[in-house]
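Entry for the shared binder. Reason: the reviewer on the internal report wants the predicted structure included alongside the sequence.
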Amino acid sequence: MPYNLEYYDDKIQKKLSEENHDFLASYIFSKWDEWNSLRSRNLESISAVEKAIYPDYKSFGGVSSSSGSKINIRMPEIYEIRETYKAHLWKSWFSSLDSMFDVQGKAKQCHDNAAKQKASLIDIFRSINLVSKFEKGLDNWINKGEFIAFISWSTQIKKIRRKSILSEKNLLNGDEVIFDNEYSKIDEIFIGEGNDKSENKKTSDGVNEVAQKHFSAQNGNDFEVYSASPFTIKDETLYDGPDITIVPSEAFVFDPSKKENFETCPKIYRSWATFDEIKANKLYKNLDGIEEICSHKDSQFSDNKATRNDQIEILEFWGNVKLKDGTLLRNYVITLAGRKNIIRFEENPFIINPFIFAAFLEDPETKRGYSPLFVALPLNEISETIMNLQLDALRLVINKPYLAPKGALSGKINIKEGAIIEYDPTLMPNQPIPLDFKDAIVGWDFLRFFESKIESTTGIFKYMTGDPRSMNQRTATEATGIITGQNIRLSKEIDVLNYKVKMPIIEKIAELIANFSFDIKEIKVSLSNGDIDFVSIDESVRQGNYDYLIGDSNAAFERKTKLKDSMDLLFQMAKEPEIAPRIKWVEVMKWAFGQIGSVDPNMFIKD
């Protein structure tokens, strides 16, 4: 197998042998299968929650095809809780990029550069559209109980069309080339070669085709630069810096026995790509034989292992790993394609652990998370069962069945308006007796009980949906206690997201730009008087020693309550003659605006 994968052992460069190649390939896909199997119950919980949130159309309601007359209605309770929960969580967790965090320097020079460092990070977050990626991660947090992000380096390039800047002298004969004139020196050249000017066709850019061909033939590879066309197509770099990818829970596994030290814990990230996509990636090599993998259909490549339709499985291993001879490779990234070829083999180019992992309700064995909605599924299923039984009973009450003597009505009877139905009065001397099913409609109180239980289990009460009808069942004191309790639970969850998601993302991106960005870049910032200015970001700013402080640590309701109490106390203190002149009212205003997540207060301030 021709390949050239190398590693260092005691600072000596060595070539990865075919034996070690096969050993590592087998190790990686066997570890994926092992760790993926360990968290099977977590995957089942994800599937159950998503089926409750996104049911297919037929499961919403109607008559079951198996029972013939039974009603099978799916209640949208889990969907309603999910949307309410996400709205309140997002509102309390994220307000704006500017107020999301703050930066403080650990030394005098770093403190002076703290504002520049924050501006640099905010510029990156805007460039990578962090807001939409946070929302996608929050969807995974609610649906799957996990927030997983991958920090990487991204370069975004687009094609642009610009007018060419030609040299003053024509490369062919030293004369000027003027495209604006209908008759140019180029025309003279080819007329002199025996071509009639009228036969020289013009391109859409107004350049004759023969001249264009002549330029191409004479200049070879310089045709793009000195093309006879006044326009060129070139690449423009839109962005070159850190990026974030939100990873679905199903595509990520790790060694649960080493979860406590997640930075060095072995991890595998699974994705799928066509052979053309793999071939286009400049990081990949050793591609011989991969294209034929999709045609193999044996036991090793079944059950979506190695291939999926025309896509090939990509297993990306991150962490420490040992070769067959016991050589330890520290902090390596090894990419396996189709469970056959190692197509990437190198030390971690980012140096840092690029993965961020946070779980809502962590399984003590698998160390994986459960959705906050998972515990409500059994309660919702019981509610659906009761509802369907009540609707079945209601149908029997509305359209009662009757008891009649056997044979009283013979043959098939078509009932319609004004129809006359004949029967033998000797077989049915008395009127048919209707059956009464009113006693079966007794489950509505049970529905209210399970609805209340779902609320207390998830912490998402009807008050959060803005439904005023739910307030009528409780006193004002009870309602206040419920709202306070649900905001305390929400606040705790926001703190978890802050310190297990936001803080690591900010720190890892700051570390990446310190390690890999060395250019000088101008960043737009807002001044205290509301004007716009530009500051230069260089290595001294990026490589400073900073503390990153997270905002939005409390739920919105609790934050506004504290704001009101603080402002009341401040106004009382302002009545004291000795204290009033020492209050920084501009800073108070900035702080108040930040607490309510409003617009930038600097726009209201002037020098």
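Summary line for the report: The first helix runs from residue 18 to 38.
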